[in-house]
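Module 6 notes. Inverse folding takes a fixed backbone as the condition and produces residue identities as the prediction. Think of it as a translation problem where the source language is geometry and the target language is the twenty amino acids. Below is one complete input and output pair. Work through it position by position during the lab.
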């Protein structure tokens, strides 16, 4: 992710700021499992002795209302594992009303009496394996589902949720992750996005595939993840239904919607995959810069594949959002979405490098817990440094030196720990910049052959899975044969600016690399 902050974003006039990660106080909130408002009925009981799933002798118990993430303990849910989301929606841009049905295919991981989904819109009905289920609200974004029959460990579940609401007027923790625009909407955010458009098990530890289908007034486009399994389908009432499919598992926040008027450009990548790029028709004079950047996606992905290993997904592309859209960029799976501010001063291929590096680091290999965010943002930031080397616009060492000197020793920047920044600073500058510096120090410690082998092995061994910083360190030590504890501790887990030896710098007063202003071009604008 490139956040609204001086690190990598040009701000856009009139664009509301991106919601930051929740404060530690909110994140530490414990969610009560007590039902607060019952809005549905369990339905009829199953006939005695027939049609009931086999449940062990142990009494079924509720699934946990969170996965216990140290930063966001109530994100995600326990007791089941999702395989697939089938999301079928109808959107009315004039009122921002969204209605739909999401069918969730999952497997119970324990004997369940009830389970939770993360969701914020009003729910009309829930069915579990065809039976009407009870449902109720608990906490700020929990939907508690009580099946008519207990669920057995290992049992396959089909959960059908019907719902409707106005996402832009639905707030959780005081904000909405849905951005309404003049011609449509954007469902793009991190770490939470799904709450406002589909019910889910909202944590990167539970990945799934998606089918996403949206009906809109004819004349609007809908762009989402993956590939189109069919052409847009005309519907009654001068409407069109758009369908998208993702066949590789992803985290819930990586699914997205871009609804509005877009020019869609398709092509084929060097590896034979489809490339789908979309450009809001509102971009005006910024459109050429957006195209000059995003149309390089296939080239950049081809280069990154040589550095990080084979591209892990089925399609490539990008979305240049509208002028009244988001003020950040996000690594939405197969097709990153970019706010309009990135094109304010011309083409910006570095943000395309950053967001597509996330396809490996963050999307394919996701964090096991949000405290491991360095595995996403530090790596994507360092990819920009590697691209700078590739383009002869400054070596990674020159960027390290200049970045190090850019933050005085007494700067608050050095007090944030990239390896454990805290819930309220998940997207702090230090996670990106000091995070990239940490990777460079690891590279220097092990040498280039081992360093790039470590990156490719990490992405291969944990493809479509999750990882922790500790696991990455263990891999790096195994491949390099070096004890790296001092490097990881100093650069990721120790406050204060690390001291550099005389041989660790290329110059006592490093010159500004040519890539510097391209990577950091928003600093003066955001300082206003």
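Target side of the pair, the amino acids:
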């Amino acid at each position: 992710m490139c956040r609204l902050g001086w690190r990598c974003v040009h701000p856009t006039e009139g664009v509301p700021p991106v919601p930051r990660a929740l404060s530690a106080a909110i994140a530490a909130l414990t969610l009560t499992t007590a039902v607060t408002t019952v809005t549905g009925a369990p339905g009829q009981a199953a006939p005695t002795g027939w049609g009931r799933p086999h449940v062990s002798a142990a009494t079924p118990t509720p699934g946990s209302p969170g996965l216990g993430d140290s930063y966001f303990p109530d994100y995600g849910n326990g007791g089941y594992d999702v395989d697939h989301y089938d999301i079928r929606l109808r959107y009315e841009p004039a009122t921002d009303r969204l209605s739909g049905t999401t069918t969730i295919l999952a497997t119970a991981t324990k004997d369940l009496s009830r389970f939770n989904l993360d969701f914020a819109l009003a729910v009309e009905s829930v069915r579990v394996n065809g039976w009407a289920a009870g449902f109720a609200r608990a906490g700020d974004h929990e939907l508690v589902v009580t099946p008519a029959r207990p669920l057995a460990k290992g049992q396959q579940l089909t959960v059908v949720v019907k719902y409707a609401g106005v996402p832009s007027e639905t707030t959780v923790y005081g904000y909405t992750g849905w951005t309404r625009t003049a011609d449509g909407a954007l469902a793009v955010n991190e770490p939470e996005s799904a709450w406002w458009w589909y019910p889910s098990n909202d944590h990167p530890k539970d990945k799934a595939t998606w089918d996403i289908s949206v009906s809109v007034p004819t004349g609007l486009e809908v762009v989402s993840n993956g590939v189109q399994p069919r052409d847009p389908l005309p519907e009654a009432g001068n409407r069109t239904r758009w369908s998208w499919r993702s066949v590789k598992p992803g985290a819930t926040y990586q699914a997205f919607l871009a609804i509005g008027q877009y020019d869609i450009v398709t092509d084929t990548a060097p590896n034979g995959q489809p490339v789908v790029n979309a450009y809001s028709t509102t971009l005006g004079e910024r459109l050429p810069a957006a195209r000059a950047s995003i149309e390089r996606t296939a080239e950049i992905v081809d280069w990154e594949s040589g550095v990080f290993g084979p591209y892990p997904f089925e399609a490539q592309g990008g979305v240049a959002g509208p002028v009244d859209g988001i003020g950040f960029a996000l690594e939405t799976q197969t097709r990153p979405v970019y706010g309009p501010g990135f094109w304010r001063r011309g083409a910006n291929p570095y943000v395309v490098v950053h967001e597509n590096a996330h396809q490996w680091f963050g999307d394919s290999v996701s964090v096991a817990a949000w405290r491991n965010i360095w595995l996403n943002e530090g790596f994507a930031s360092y990819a920009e440094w590697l691209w700078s080397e590739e383009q002869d616009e400054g070596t990674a060492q020159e960027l390290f030196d200049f970045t190090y000197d850019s933050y005085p020793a007494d700067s608050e920047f050095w007090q944030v720990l990239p390896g454990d920044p805290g819930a309220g600073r998940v997207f702090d500058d230090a996670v990106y910049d000091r995070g990239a510096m940490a990777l460079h120090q690891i590279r220097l410690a092990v040498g280039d052959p081992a360093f790039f082998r470590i990156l490719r092995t990490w992405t291969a061994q944990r493809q479509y899975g999750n990882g922790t910083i500790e696991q990455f360190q263990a891999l790096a030590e195994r491949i390099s044969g070096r004890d790296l504890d001092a490097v990881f501790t100093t650069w990721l887990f120790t406050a204060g600016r690390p001291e550099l030896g005389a041989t660790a710098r290329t110059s006592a007063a490093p010159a500004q690399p040519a890539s510097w202003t391209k990577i950091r071009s928003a600093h003066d604008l955001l300082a206003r």
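Reference fact for the lab report: The radius of gyration is 23 Å.
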